[in-house]
Amino acid sequence: MRVLDGGGVTSPEGYFAAGISCGIKKNGKKDLAIVCSEDISATAGVFTTNIVKGHSLQVTMEHLKSGYATAIVINSGNANACVGKRGYEDAKEIAKITAGLLECDIENILVGSTGVIGVPLQMDLIRPALEKLVENMSPDGGHDAAEAIMTTDLVAKEIAVEFEIQGKKVVIGGMAKGSGMIHPNMATMIGVITTDANISKSLLDKALKEVVKYTFNRVSVDGDTSICDMVILMANGMADNPAIIKEDKDYVKFKNALSYVCTDLSKKIARDGEGATKLVEIKVSGASTEEDAYKVASAIAKSPLVKTAIFGEDANWGRIITAAGYSGATFNPEKVDIYIGKLLVCKNGTAVEFDEAKAKSILQSKEIIITVKLNNGKFSDKIWTCDLSYDYVKINGSYRS
Amino acid sequence: MRVLDGGGVTSPEGYFAAGISCGIKKNGKKDLAIVCSEDISATAGVFTTNIVKGHSLQVTMEHLKSGYATAIVINSGNANACVGKRGYEDAKEIAKITAGLLECDIENILVGSTGVIGVPLQMDLIRPALEKLVENMSPDGGHDAAEAIMTTDLVAKEIAVEFEIQGKKVVIGGMAKGSGMIHPNMATMIGVITTDANISKSLLDKALKEVVKYTFNRVSVDGDTSICDMVILMANGMADNPAIIKEDKDYVKFKNALSYVCTDLSKKIARDGEGATKLVEIKVSGASTEEDAYKVASAIAKSPLVKTAIFGEDANWGRIITAAGYSGATFNPEKVDIYIGKLLVCKNGTAVEFDEAKAKSILQSKEIIITVKLNNGKFSDKIWTCDLSYDYVKINGSYRS
Question: Is the domain of A42 the same as that of A189?
Fold first, then answer.
């Protein structure tokens, strides 16, 4: 498997994309994206578990019942959520206009929206822009699309990898946007993954579900699970590999490559979390159940006290063991070991003497691993998160203005 | 019932207190407190549910098995937690020395510690200071004690109320400290409540447990539940009222007064939360179960996105409904109404036109009520919290230094 330089959603065979500015974002930045496959694609989706759901997301869930899609249109700057019946109708209209332009069924168009909640979509801006969007589609348009789905993201998040299945070159590409209101709860932010692999719809669903669990569902920026989160995976089969129809070594190869793509995008989301200055990986091992490993990692990743200490480059491990203690997991506090990087700071639940200067230098790096060994069982988990800085407060103190 | 001017833990008959500086806090501020009753007191306690527990708290839980106490000694600046066997021995030694000075059993001395985790108690400073502490005790020492238990608190938190039971004047006083690592989980911060009421030990336990649930257990500053939290309620019976031994109208009067004291201290803790600029009350009604009402209130109170928006005085109600949606409670999003102050901002889960200037002016006040009506049942709840500001990040970025 090899990572493609500058790869993204248009790296696989037969995909076109575009990203343009239609005026939703007041600063003139791109705010309307499309990703389209030449052939209709088997498509899988994973959606937020928030019981409040954005209107565009609801239309996509409805359209995806068929299991196939031609294109997805995503706007940023407006979440199209909590605006009543009109929100559903607007999302439907975007799908209808796009279907007309692409000459396909309305059900084959998926729709996503991300941004401010409670403001009706600016359809007077979007309606006329859809034709231009479709006209702009190109096999090099992946980066524009990745830019057009950004909200508070500072960098576009993309990747593509190439591998072989029975002598045929197969590519998986992807893009995602963060960077706030992010916490695992069966789904995450907006992510679009494309592949030219030939794979059955049911295995596509299975692979996405399994991979998302340990990638996009292991990212926490602020503990808030959005109402517009979805990850869509399209597979158009144009790589012409013998179809993957059972869980054989080809499936494993595909799933590993998909996992690589989703892991990469997940880490990019955490690293670019709102106000983040550091990517933090919380590793938990030795839990007595799978659930307990997750609970401990999640509580630490969410703790504002842990996150501000990391921002302040302060090796305050007391906050780490405290978060573990209230996570709801069962373990013996007197068996817990905690490492900051490779530096042991707590052994058997008790402070150990450590070199504060060394701890500080570890915490000054851009990527930090915190390891919590519960020494209580065989289950482990990990979550990617970031620190909590002044800029998080700044960004979120006036998001709507 | 009447609130006593400048009242605190020494307002009830027969209580003495002191607060001195023994040198744990490097800035010379008070860091050692004692609250002592002339007569041995029936004493109730509620403790953190964090499975990691501070050593002083463990000693207090052990000593309180008898149900009676003479005094509680609390140090700030050091949590006496996660330092191994030594931590337990140090807490025991503080109790032993104090018992010697007060000529009582060691089991009648309770101990509390709050501050940095993982650093052994500075016993060389505490040991010689205990004699001075006891010498300094006076019936006017309540305020000094309240100051000596402060950590990042900006103001000492105290109150006392007076009421009558069968013609006898009864007083309840209290002090508490916040102001970070605070989230309900059956216990909270450190609080000491004193009363001269004559009440049976079992009713004292019952009253404290019931009152704490809707007062101290309804405060959230940052979602982190500390490992040193406890609320202690001492009753020495010196008011000489006919003993409260059943759940009659005298018990109700006592419980109402206790509730007033605990509510006042809880709101003071939220208002003085780390970096807080506003006290925020989250009211949830119309939930289909008691648990759901709590879940929704708690998720909103914890959400960094909601809290930063309030800091920024931005009426971003989309974040409020989002937090409700991921809280785990079951409700129909299309029936939810949200008010900021008395201003309706969301009706039936849908945006309503509202006066942004009016919303801004409501959010500029120091006390804000956010009401979420789920319109789904008959259960309600409320939580006090605060906004999330730059200063929270500043305070917690370098707590140990």
Answer: yes
Q: Catalytic residue at A188?
A: yes
pLDDT given for residue A112 in this prediction: 96
A3 reaches B (C-beta below 8 A): no
Side-by-side strand order, sheet with A379-386: A350-351, A343-347, A337-340, A367-373, A279-287, A379-386
Q: Do B222 and A305 touch (CB under 8 A)?
A: yes
Question: How many Cβ atoms sit within 10 Å of the Cβ of residue B239?
Answer: 21
Q: Chain A within 8 Å of B396 (Cβ-Cβ)? A: yes
pLDDT, tens digit (0-9, with 9 covering 90-100), for A249-266:
999 999 999 999 999 999
The interface residues of chain A toward chain B in range 15-44, judged by CB-CB distance below 8 A, are none
B391–chain A nearest CA distance, Å: 8
pLDDT tens digits, residue range A1-13? 999 999 999 999 9
Chain A neighbours among B 118-147 (CB < 8 Å)? 118-120
Predicted local distance difference test score (pLDDT) of residue A272 = 85
Of B271, B295, B323, the one marking the end of a domain is: B271
Same-domain pairing of B58 and B159 = yes
In chain B, % helix, strand, coil (3-state, to 5) comes to 35, 30, 35
In which domain, by residue range, is B210 found?
A: 2-271
A84 has a chain B CB within 8 A of its CB: yes
Q: By C-alpha distance, which of A265, A262, A161, A253 is closest to A203? A: A253
B321 and A CB contact within 8 Å: yes
A300: Cα separation from own chain's centroid: 20
Same domain for A265 and A288: no
Q: Where are the alpha helices (DSSP H) in A29-174?
A: 55-63, 85-102, 123-135, 142-148
Single out the residue in A271, A296, A314 at which a domain terminates.
A271
ipTM score of complex: 0.79
Within 8 A by CB and 6+ apart from B313, the residues are: B360, B363, B364
- Maximum CA extent, chain A: 69
Shared-domain flag, residues A183 and A127:
yes
**Residues B312/A398, Cβ–Cβ less than 8 Å:** yes
The two three-digit tokens of residue B99, written as one number:
């018992």
Does the predicted model carry a pTM greater than 0.90?
Answer: no
